[in-house]
Amino acid sequence: MDEHKLNVALLFGGRSGEHEVSLKSAQSIYNAIDRTRYNVQTIGINKLGQWFWGEIPEKLINDGFPPINQACQVTLVVDPTNPHFIALNGGALPNQGNVDLIFPVLHGPYGEDGTLQGLLEMANIPYVGSGVLGSSLGMDKDRMKAVFLEKNLPLARYQTLLRSEFINKLEESLNMIEEKIGYPCFVKPANLGSSVGISKAHDRLELENALKVAALFDRKIVVEETIVGQEIEISVLGNDTPKASLPGEVLPAHEFYTYEAKYSNIGSRTLIPASLDEALVKRLQEMAVKAFQAVEACGLSRVDFFVTPQNGIILNEINTLPGFTEISMYPKLWEATGISYSDLIDRLITLGLERFEDKQSLKISSE
Questions:
Q1: pLDDT for res 260
Q2: For the whole prediction, is pTM greater than 0.90?
Q3: How many angstroms from the chain centroid is the CA of residue 346?
């Protein structure tokens, strides 16, 4: 191992419906990261939440996780003075399990929602991406929208209900949504991404079924009005002074941009850069940065919009750990803006280290 290189650990997989997407994102990063600058370690997390050292994303995609007795299960020692990994079987790890930075490539719950970030903060280890607050606000569509409204960002009409409300007061819930939102509407789990668990309802029966599907994934459900317009996405990069990329347009083959379309490239197309006039692009970029700052995101985010036929802008959501596969919008938008995939990885690592160093300079008491 080259001691002059930074030791970066890719962390991927995880306990979420986006497990497979995470593996694909990690595979792309693993293949593209600059080996002249970084020693790369890999830590795969299976769907049970167990961590394994040295697992290669591509092999896991093809073969799945090996049996536990054939893998190196590890855990993170949460010691702020000496954070490191240890093998549970007592075996040796490269560099005694020490890493200089964690690069989380975990989409969805237990990776993108602030839980992992809290663990890494407790361990006092640098990592790529948003902190606890930015991650949790970016994941919870209900709380995200509340923050956006507080910053006067334009949103579609929406209603939030708990799974218990839907189960115990079905008729009241359906009536409330029909009165306040109407059809067609989108029904989403509040705390998932990549279109997992999302349905479009055109009538009462479809609405009831959509609520049942969303309730399988989360205790909180968000229902939104349908906005007719172009689906526009912008990538944001930075910490205190973030920058926005050129916009891209999603041209879905179906009624909305499904999970399969995002990661299998089936039917749907993307247009990069989007065909928009310069003034509108500037407004979108400014709003993307404002959304990024509203949730206190760091490092990277993708911000999604609708642009109506009258050039009105509706902010849809922010994704603080967007897909990073070869066909994902986040890296493709930066490539179109002038930052290559490999350079983007490098910048994100640098931003993670800068954020960590900035936090280390703060006092923790008045002594």
A1: 52
A2: yes
A3: 18
